[in-house]
Amino acid sequence: MLELHDLTKTYKTGDTALGGVSFTVPKGQIVGLIGPSGAGKSTLIRCINRLVEPTAGRISLGGHDLTGLGLRELRAQRRRIGMIFQEYALVERLSVMENVLSGRLGYVGFWTSFARRFPPADIQRAYRLLDRVGLIEHADKRADALSGGQRQRVGIARALAQEPDLLLVDEPTASLDPKTSRQIMRLLVEICTESGLPAIVNIHDVPLAQQFMQRIIGLRAGRVVFDGTPAQLTESALTEIYGSEDWTAMRKDHEDDQEAEADALRRLSALPA
């Protein structure tokens, strides 16, 4: 379980990115984090694993307080937190397999990782994960030879290689087309559901969040202004989070994309074998 208590981040300029954020994420729950640009979504995710140092408040994961840890203890706790980035953060010149195995760097010694001599159990786990994300046949390809959706799948497998207790996902579909975005979100949800893995997904696409997330938290100006189910995310709630917008038109565009994808699949299935 992840618990945030009055998490605050104020920069030296005096700007407040987070103003007393509190919520709990139980085991197995998938939370979508939405809000306008500058609302504090990415800052919140990075405060949880202390890539950004919070100014005040407390972060607890599985009963362990993360906010007061020294560097060595923090390094050990970070192994429990998988991170999936918007821009993939892969080592382009390395193979897909090597990128997935980099998720084990927190568990093996420096020279073992430097020589790329990972234990057989780690290699077997990496193959299983690549199979799960649909990339087993690309294991020996360089990362820079993959499409955007394939790179994001490698990022998912790498995060899962850590065997984390929490998954943090920062705008996983921002660089992807609508069809690939739904495929990636569906894969994330399936994997988290299978393993009971809690996740916080910073997502800019509101209809996508409503389609796939179990719970949605809306931030505005660094504060939580909505916390509920996708069904409770009404137009008035969206206006509270984002301000005035034509939400009906936005949902219609999303439904049109879904229908176009379904129609393409129907046409494909009707082709002769």
Task: Produce a short descriptive summary.
This protein has 273 residues and is of the alpha/beta class.
Task: Describe it.
There is one protein chain. By secondary structure, the chain is α/β, with parallel strands linked by helices. The chain has a domain at 1-80 and 200-268: Rossmann fold (3-Layer(aba) Sandwich). It is 41% helix and 21% strand. It is built from 10 helices and 10 strands. The chain has helices spanning 41-48, 71-78, 96-101, 110-114, 120-132, 148-161, 178-195, 206-212, 235-242, 247-270, and strands at 2-10, 16-25, 30-34, 56-61, 64-65, 81-84, 166-170, 199-202, 215-220, 223-228. The chain has a 6-stranded mixed beta sheet with strand order 6-7-8-3-9-10, sandwiched between helices. Strands 2-1-4-5 form a 4-stranded antiparallel beta sheet. Helix 5 crosses helix 6. The longest helix has 24 residues, at 247-270. The protein is globular and about 50 Å long. The relative contact order is 0.16.
**Cα-to-Cα separation, first versus last residue:** 48 Å
* Sequence of strands across the biggest β-sheet: 6-7-8-3-9-10
Cα Rg: 20 Å
Structural class: alpha/beta
Let me know the largest β-sheet: 6 strands, mixed
Instruction: Please work out how many helical segments DSSP would assign.
Output: 10
CATH architecture of the domain at 1-80 and 200-268: 3-Layer(aba) Sandwich
Low-confidence stretches: none
At the first level of CATH, what is the class of the domain at 1-80 and 200-268? Alpha Beta
The H/E string reads EEEHEEHEHHHHEHEHEEHH
